[in-house]
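Minutes, structural biology subgroup

Action item carried over from last meeting: produce the structure token record for Protease (Microbacterium suwonense). EB confirmed the sequence was re-checked against the source entry. Recorded below for completeness.
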Amino acid sequence: MAEKILIITGDAAETLEVYYPYHRLQEAGYEVHIGAPEKRKLQFVVHDFVDGFDTYTEKPGHTCDADVALADVDPDDYVAVVVPGGRAPEYLRNNADAQRLVRHFFEKNAPVAATCHGPLLLAASGVLEGRTSSAYPELAVDVTTAGGVFENGGAVVDGNLVTARAWPDNGTWMKAFLEVLQSA
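Output recorded by EB:
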């Protein structure tokens, strides 16, 4: 039976930041579950970078069925957790079950991957104190306000934590995360 990895996400998650780790981790032999506030169909978005815009643009993306509601997740069933970005972490950071799950993986020193706006959930969960984390660059203030050290990189590794800026970093982010998983 394959080891399981949980992806914590929800509506308005960035499509590429969910599907790339989902498929890459499956390819590596893990059973991957999508956990969301409710077990239902989620609507993702596509964030893109357009010349002349001060920030990213957003368009409707793919849909995906959540495998499990966060309240029903037993974190001991999973060896690692992934927190994609997009806008989902903006509201997930207020979800007590999402925070509970994130804290569990940090307390166990289990592998954690987060990208883009995903570190917002880590900050709200109180786990960034003294940790080095990447994120979407405009979130540097959120990382440092939570007591972390912001590093603008595509595969920032701090012990069990692997972070990145956004979907253009998917390859280096998941390569580093797989290395952390294999050494755990």
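Discussion: The chain has one domain: 4-183.
Next step: EB to file the record with the rest of the batch.
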